[in-house]
Amino acid sequence: MTRTLVLLRHGQSQWNLENRFTGWVDVDLTELGRREARAAGELMRDEGLVFDQAHTSVLKRAVCSQNLALEVMDQQWVPVRKDWRLNERHYGALQGLDKAETTARHGEDQVKIWRRSYDVLPPPMPESDPGHPKNDIRYRTLDARALPATESLATTLERVLPYWHDAIAPQLKAGQKVLVTAHGNSLRALYKYLNGLSAAEILEINIPTGIPMHFDLDAELKVLSHRYLGDAEAAQRAAQAVANQARGKT
Q1: Using the 8-state DSSP alphabet, how is residue 78 labeled?
Q2: What is the average pLDDT across 85-106?
Q3: Element (H or E) spanning 3, and its range?
């Protein structure tokens, strides 16, 4: 029996629209983002998917996207677990900056390294910054030493992977169908792990907003196949649009 996992990046957020580094800033969906989330629900419904469990981050763009998708599927009853370890990568001092302006200032190569490299950390956010996670009420019960001031994809994977092993993998091994709604980089980290990609290979992977990625896994959770639901060419164009953001292209 194959195991079913679906990964969904949230719909377009306000800072996706404004081409800003978002990270852990709790930015809401745009109206387009809400439509993308509902469209994702339609794709999953039309695929005949019925989930047993769902997981998301504690950031509202992911929470709302998952709620909207499950509503369209008439599956609001699915148990949902929210966890900070599925949050977007923390972009440190880059959070809130315009990507194209940052590219103009620091160069395309440097910004690509910050955005898409595996183990390079952006400049950290000072602890005195009001936006530092230690000042956010949703993380008040966590050890402050666990809260990042900056992250690379590698350190994002270091927090995502324990959650995968502790919370998601046991459900899949038990034969349950699982939906994970999260963010571009927390999902890239998981994608790297599942597909056994190298640090160089993951550099070129971009995950578009609002298009579910369906995985068939074997009993040991090895990937048998994966694909975007819906129009494959549309998903490819959307992924290329993500890649173009730092260069200021449309």
Answers
A1: S
A2: 92
A3: strand 3-9
Under a CB-based contact definition with an 8 Å cutoff, are residues 83 and 163 in contact? yes
Active-site residue set: 10, 88
Amino acid 227 reads: R
> Could you read off the pLDDT of 161-207 as tens digits, one per residue?
999 999 999 999 999 999 999 999 999 999 999 999 999 999 889 99
* CA 113 to mean position of chain CA atoms: 18
CB-CB neighbours of 229 under 10 Å: 19
H-only helix segments in the chain = 14-17, 31-46, 60-72, 99-106, 108-116, 153-163, 169-173, 184-195, 199-202, 232-244
pTM summary value: 0.93
Q: Which of 69, 115, 76 is closest to 92 using CA atoms?
A: 115
40-94 per-position pLDDT tens digit: 999 999 999 999 999 999 999 999 999 999 999 999 999 999 999 999 999 999 9
**Closest to 204 in 3D by CA, of 119, 121, 120, 116:** 116
Cβ atoms 161, 131 nearer than 8 A: no
Any idea which residue has 């302006």 for tokens?
101
Give the CATH number of domain 3-247; options: 3.40.50.970, 3.40.190.10, 3.40.50.1240, 3.40.50.720.
3.40.50.1240
